[in-house]
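Try this one yourself first.
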């Protein structure tokens, strides 16, 4: 059944919105296990719409792409990520301060 779903998705005979949650989960697991990046992109876009307009940011992305703090809003309250405060396992910051002379 899963191969039929995947084939129908690839041939655009059905859309991801026609799958129930179990079928969608199985399809995602299939795409990851088989390194089907096209299908992974389709599923990701289904939920985020990030690939709909390549030249525009998704509606939920409220900051500029290169900002030090990313602001996202998925409905009720802004979510913030301060990239300069993220520390890696080795103790180094994710975004080191680089000063150009």
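Now uncover the answer:
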């Amino acid at each position: 059944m899963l191969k039929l779903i995947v084939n129908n998705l690839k041939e655009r005979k059905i859309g991801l919105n026609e799958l129930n949650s179990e079928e969608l989960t199985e399809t995602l697991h299939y795409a990851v296990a088989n390194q089907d990046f096209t299908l992974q992109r389709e599923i990701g876009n289904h939920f985020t719409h990030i690939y709909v307009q390549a030249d525009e940011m998704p509606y939920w992305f409220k900051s500029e792409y290169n900002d030090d703090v990313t602001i996202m809003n998925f409905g009720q309250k802004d979510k913030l990520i301060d990239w300069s405060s993220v520390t890696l396992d080795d103790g180094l910051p994710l975004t080191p301060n680089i000063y150009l002379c």
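Discussion: The mean pLDDT is 84. The first strand starts at residue 69 and ends at 73.
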